Amino acid sequence: MLSLGSGCVLHPRCSVRVAPGAALALGDGCVVEEDAVLSFSGPGLASVGAHTVFMVACRADLVPGEAVGAWCSFMPRSRVSGVRVGDQCTLSAGAALDAAHPALVGQVEGEGDGVVPALPPRTIIHGAANAARTWDAGGEAQERALRLSATEYLREVLPKFNKQRPA
Predict the structure, then answer these.
(1) pTM of the entire structure?
(2) Which end of the chain is flanked by fewer CB atoms within 10 Å, N or C?
(3) For this UniProt entry, which segments traverse the membrane (predicted)?
C-alpha cells in the first residue's frame, strides 16, 4: 500500500515498489523524479519525511519505521540501502550509502529487524569515496524556499507535458 501526503509529486516514469502486506507513506510535499526507484520489501510500514526529494535515477531501498527524515535530498544516481536516514541529509550525485558506511554512528531499534544503522541528521555524503561531512544549516531558510518553489513548479508543469497516451 502506498500513502501520499498532500502536495506530493511523482513523475510518471518513477517507480515505487511496495511488497504485498507492507506499506509506504510519503510525507507532505515529497518529490519522486524521473527514473527514481523507491522500494520497500516490508514488513510493516516505512515512512519518508515531508519535503524529501528523490532526484533522477536515484535508488532507495527503505527500512521499516521512519526510513527517511524530512527535507532530505537524494541527488541523481545516488543509492541508499538498508539504512535509516536522518532529517536534512543529502546524498550527492552518484553517492552510495549502505550499512557498512563509517558515517553511521547512530543506531536505532528497527521494527522487527533489530538494530538498523542510522545516518545522523544534517549529514552530507559526497564524492567518489562517499565521504561524509556535517552541514551547519547555513542558508537553511533559502534552501527550504528554493525547494518549495521547485516543488510548486513541478506540480504545475508535469501535468501539462506528461499526458497519458492511449495504449
Answers:
(1) 0.87
(2) C
(3) none
From residue 3, alpha-carbon distances to 25, 44, 84 in Å are 5, 13, 19
60-74, 112-126, 141-155: range with lowest mean pLDDT: 112-126
Query: Cα 125 to chain center, whole Å?
Result: 14
Find cell 561524509 and name the residue: 132
Cell numbers given for 123: 549529514
Quote the Cα angle for 21-22-28, to 5°. Answer: 140
Q: Residue 165 has which C-alpha cell?
A: 497516451
Q: 2 to each of 24, 42, 53, how far by Cα in Å?
A: 5, 12, 17
Q: How many CA atoms lie within 13 A of 166 on its CB side?
A: 0
Could you tell me the three cell numbers for 126? 559526497
Tell me the pLDDT tens digit for each residue of 55-78.
999 999 999 989 999 999 999 999
